[in-house]
């Protein structure tokens, strides 16, 4: 008759089973991430080019990029980067439709929805908060835009795209902007390089704002 297994043997078998389970989970996670990255790769490359002005998007290319990113989001719904790109993709189309309020608000509503998913997964992303601020501005919700800008400057105070977005949005909403954002913009103008000051002056002229440093 076989002897009953000792407690140590049972624990060893349980440990082996746990290690095998963790290894299988790790393999599944890795292939899932790889599949999602491969699915979204071309869309991300295209959007980077469109955003940088290196190429112009067409409606068929835009739809293809959207569909690829949505598929990637289904494969790996916990990847914030996919939702960042979905937000950026909709913002690109919203920008082109800026003078058509209904279309602009429709695309930026989608951009906001995706950006909020990204931020729920990675709330410390300053650039994502800056994109959220732009979305709120496009939807004419200025108080929400100011709140998002504060978060953008909290998490990305030294990131050039964050600072540039904040400068433009603060100047675009200057008459309503709260004192802390006025003070931030004036300090940027006072302490910035000559190129940074020139950029702020150019934006101020566009939005009819007179920069007066105290």
UniProtKB/TrEMBL annotation:
It comes from the Bacteria. InterPro entries: TPR-like_helical_dom_sf (IPR011990). This is Tetratricopeptide repeat protein. It comes from Uliginosibacterium paludis.
